[in-house]
Amino acid sequence: MEVAVLDINGKETGRKVTLSDSVFGVEPNNHAIYLDVKRYLANQRQGTHKSKERAEIAGSTRKIKKQKGTGTARAGSIKSPVFVGGGRIFGPRPKDYTQKLNKNVKRLARKSALTLKAKEQSVIVLEDFNFDAPKTKNFTNVLNALGLAGKKSLFVLGDTNNNVYLSSRNLKSSEVVTSSELSTYKIVNANSIVLLEGSLEGIESNLSK
């Protein structure tokens, strides 16, 4: 699959690159995408939720009223869950939500997601660029030139570039990652994938196995 290479002004450079069929032209596996997205979202959960149960409440253990003769239900402790300020019944406890997935399934999921984006013509190849200093306006100009302003976009760099990353950080609709940080969720979540030329070799070497 051949794609024209654009510059940061959104114009064609006259060059074309060939996207590998082993990454951008596979038979999409929707179930693999589902499993990998579910794993990613589950792994974002901290699992630190906790409420105090009866044994953890600070309070008197004195029997608050006599056992019989009051005409009401018996009660043994002010810490009982039936009283205001008492412990919580079956409250949440810390839990590890981490899920694991076979590396081959994760690789298939990413290739499937990239293939679907390529079929939708939502993949843009951009020549490598850099900014002299971190500035949101510079990154916004690139988005405007590519027609991606206000749309969810994912920029994939070959190597870490702090100036480009910091320039995009204030923009909620855009995200910048390196080829090694590429995940199925981020691919699916974006409307357009912008691949810098320097990232293509890394993506293909990571996924065409």
List the helices and strands and how they pair.
Elements: E1 2-6, E2 12-18, H1 21-24, H2 30-43, H3 103-119, E3 123-126, H4 136-146, E4 153-157, H5 162-168, E5 174-178, H6 184-189, E6 192-196, H7 197-207
Parallel strand pairs: 1-3, 3-6, 4-5, 4-6
Antiparallel strand pairs: 1-2
Helix pairs in contact: 2-3, 4-5
List keywords for this structure.
Ribosomal Protein L4, Chain: A; elongated; about 35% helix; 6-stranded mixed sheet; about 210 residues; alpha/beta
In short:
InterPro entries: Ribosomal_uL4, Ribosomal_uL4-like, Ribosomal_uL4_dom_sf. The protein is α/β, with parallel strands linked by helices and 209 residues long.
Describe this structure in words.
With about 210 residues, the protein is of the alpha/beta class. It has two domains: about 1-45 and about 100-205, Ribosomal Protein L4, Chain: A (3-Layer(aba) Sandwich), CATH 3.40.1370.10; about 50-95, no CATH class. It contains seven helices and six strands, in the order ββαααβαβαβαβα. It has helices spanning about 20-25, 30-45, 105-120, 135-145, 160-170, 185-190, 195-205, and strands at about 1-5, 10-20, 125, 155, 175-180, 190-195. It has a six-stranded mixed sheet with strand order 2-1-3-6-4-5. β1 and β2 (about 10-20) form a beta hairpin. The model has no long low-confidence stretch (mean pLDDT about 95).
